[in-house]
């Protein structure tokens, strides 16, 4: 089994829905009796993987990569909204916790201080990015 990068980042893979890092298409070739290969989107940072597209060696590799990219991007889109929701809930929970007096509220205050809006900026970038790609697809040049 050989693992190799089949395509560069220029191939319009959306950022990872979990951490917002760039993603790549990764392909694996199986030799021997199985004689097929698979491609999936994979986060460069946290290792999250998209659905695996499995094809026989004789099939068109470009089509397989396109399908893997489409699957990864679908998930990035669906999860962007979920991520925004989860992030807003996180802020709501921390804010609620901050109202608790004394040491009970301290961890919440510390969490917000440490975050400093980082989560909000990350999820906003992810959301805007997924929207931008959606608009590109609905308005072909
Ligand atoms: Zn990631």
What does this structure look like?
The protein is α+β, with helices and mostly antiparallel strands. The chain has one domain (2-138). It is built from 3 helices and 4 strands, in the order ββββααα. Strands 1-2-3-4 form a 4-stranded antiparallel sheet, with helices on one face. It starts with a strand and ends with a helix. Bound molecules: zinc ion (ZN). Residues 16, 18-19, 21, 43, 45-46, 48 line the site of zinc ion.
Helix-strand layout with pairing:
Layout: E1 2-5, E2 23-30, E3 36-43, E4 53-56, H1 61-98, H2 106-115, H3 118-138
Antiparallel strand pairs: 1-2, 2-3, 3-4
Helix pairs in contact: 1-2, 1-3
Counting helices, strands and paired strands, the structural category is alpha+beta
Shape designation: elongated
> Helix amount, in percent?
40-55%
Strand order of the largest sheet: 1-2-3-4
Strand percentage: 15-25%
End-to-end CA span: 41 Å
Based on the model shown, name its key terms.
single chain, 141 residues, alpha+beta, four-stranded antiparallel beta sheet, 3 helices, disordered N terminus, binds zinc ion
Summary?
The chain is α+β, with helices and mostly antiparallel strands. The chain has helices at residues 61-98, 106-115, 118-138, and strands spanning 2-5, 23-30, 36-43, 53-56.
């Amino acid at each position: 089994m050989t693992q190799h990068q089949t395509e560069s980042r220029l191939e319009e893979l959306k950022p990872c829905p979990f951490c917002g890092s760039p993603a790549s298409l990764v392909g694996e070739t199986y030799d021997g009796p199985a004689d097929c290969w698979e491609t999936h989107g994979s986060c460069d940072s946290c290792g999250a993987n998209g659905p695996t597209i499995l094809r026989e060696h004789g099939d068109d590799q470009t089509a397989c990569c396109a399908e893997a990219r489409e699957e990864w991007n679908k998930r990035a889109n669906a999860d962007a909204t979920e991520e925004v929701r989860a992030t807003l809930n996180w802020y709501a929970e921390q804010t609620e916790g901050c109202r608790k007096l004394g040491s009970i509220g301290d961890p919440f205050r510390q969490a917000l201080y440490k975050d400093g809006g980082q989560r909000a900026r990350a999820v906003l970038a992810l959301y805007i990015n997924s929207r931008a790609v959606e608009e590109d697809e609905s308005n072909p040049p």
